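Q: Give me the 3D complex with heme C.
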Amino acid sequence: MMTEKAWQRTLVWGTAVFMVLLLGMTVDSLRQINAGRTPPVTEQVAHGKSVFQRKNCNDCHTMFGIGGYFAPDLTKVADSRDAAWLKAFLTNPAAVKPGTTMPNQRLVAADVLDLVAFLDWVRRIDTNGWPPQPLGSLGTTAGRPAPPGAFQAKGCSGCHMIDGRGAGAPGPNLSHIGSTPYDGLANTPEFLARWLADPPAIKPGTLMPKLPLSPAELDSLVRYLVALR
Ligand code: HEC
Ligand code: HEC
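A: Here is the predicted complex, encoded as structure tokens.
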């Protein structure tokens, strides 16, 4: 038989050992979470963030869901665009993407480099899979038509959503464009081909830009769109 004193000792020591273990485990998992979530902030990253704010990039773009819905979300843009592309695009958008709707932000070279560092830092923050991957990079929803390469390459998913992937704005959701025409525009193959070739020629003032498309790209896109029922 244990004496009352012995019981007390066992209880106190048992509890103390357990608390130390628990504390150790908590500290360790917090350390792991922080290591995964937040890469170190360098001076360049901090400066890039202030350029982002000073230039009001958030007026048009979202980051972590905050900002304007006019332009693509930038949280993970550095996953799909490398530093050289971003540097060239931010210096002069139209030189990289003819017909782009992003105005030249008139950035000095140092600000461009700091922004690229900031975008790379943001990319490395573990957002638990958010935002959803754009269409094409995750394959296709089962039983649905597969997007042609041009859909991803021409940035269509930067403005349109299909089957829950891509951006919800400013373009309409195209999940059923083959069976449900959009807002006064036709959805026949002939009309869609004319639309994609030059949207502003059909609807002056539309936010959808005229994108450079080869005849083969145009054809693959039209066939894809009419199959979206
Ligand atoms: C007036 C609105 C507007 C402002 C302000 C603006 N952008 Fe944009 N940006 C756009 C639009 C629209 C696009 C998509 C254009 C396209 O794909 O042709 C875009 C595209 C981009 C892209 C390329 C996305 C991709 O993968 O194709 C990057 C990077 C970007 N913007 C960064 C910035 C940064 C950084 C700033 C601030 C210095 C900024 N933008 C300010 C409208 C804007
Ligand atoms: C910068 C944003 C933007 C990009 C990039 C863009 N669109 Fe659009 N798109 C729009 C907007 C906005 C509309 C709605 C037209 C309107 O009412 O002005 C639209 C409309 C459409 C429509 C409806 C036309 C109809 O006849 O029903 C289709 C289809 C379409 N886009 C396909 C595409 C494809 C394919 C691409 C890539 C090659 C693309 N879009 C790229 C913004 C965009």
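A quick observation: Residues 52, 55-57, 59-61, 70-72, 74, 77, 80-81, 86, 89-90, 97, 100-103, 105, 115, 155, 158 surround heme C (ligand 1) (CB under 6 Å).
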